[in-house]
Amino acid sequence: MKNKYRILKIVITVIILGFLLSFSLKRFSGQKITDNKISVKMNEKTPVYFIDEKDIKEIVKKENPSGKVGDLNIPVLEKKINALPAVDSANVYLNLNGKLNLDIKQRVPVFRLNKNGKDFYVDAKGIEFPISKTYSHPCMLVTGDVKPAEYEKLAELVEKIDKDDFSKKYFIGISKDKDDYNLLTSEGNYKVEIGDLDNIEFKVKGFKEFVEKYLVFQDPQKYSMVSVKYQNQIVTTLNPYFKENDSILKAGHKELAATASAPAMVKKTETKPKPAEVKKTVTPKKATSSSKPKENTKPKTASKPKETKTSDKKPAAKPKAKIKIE
To answer: What are the structural domains of the chain?
Structure first.
């Protein structure tokens, strides 16, 4: 009998607990989610404002028009927020008091890319996402035909520039010309050619030494490009529009002209003996009857092909030749 009473007590308590639980669940599901019961937290280290608390609350209202806790589908809402381009991750959950918590991590742009006439951001993971109409994040501007496979390496380069005080001071942008990357500088009109994205620290270190030991003593407008893409050497290109470079450029043009004219002079000296040999073989046949030694002893006629033709045809008729020249 005692065992029966115990079993009966257990059954009754279970029924009571089930009734209370169902009643509390109905009451809980009937609660409305007001703005005060929606908590939105942005967990990114760098503050960005592509989306704000107001935008998230509007999404919650669209997904749950009735505003009741029981009608809210948390997995669907979480998936909807994660689908936003500027959201990296989102975690949605409810407390026992009916408070809705949304922990959101936004994407932080590393650089802004202008490609084929379109602008968009790229984060550290190499993921593209569109720019915002209401917010512009300050970051490095990159132009050119950058391939998606290069996004992560390019993001590493930008992060290294941002962490180094010297690089952050000098470099304000990156451009890609064919297969070579160029760093745009804040001082002067020159750019720093780095080539590919390998050995970036070594290349930047070489440029830093070049600036500290030489470039600080020069006019920043003197050069149009400083190349550090070659191993263990720095190649500079003079700015043709800088007036002080005129004398240097003229001297360089003269040297190029001298080197170009040297082989041409050699060719002329080699071709001169050929017409002289022809005259020696042709003139004796026609001038056998002539007794004038002056015509055969003139060496000057060997260098003038036009004069030799007139002398070969009519060597004895000098008056006629004078009349034709007049």
So the answer is: 8-106 (3.10.20.310), 109-241 (3.40.50.11690), 243-273 (no CATH)
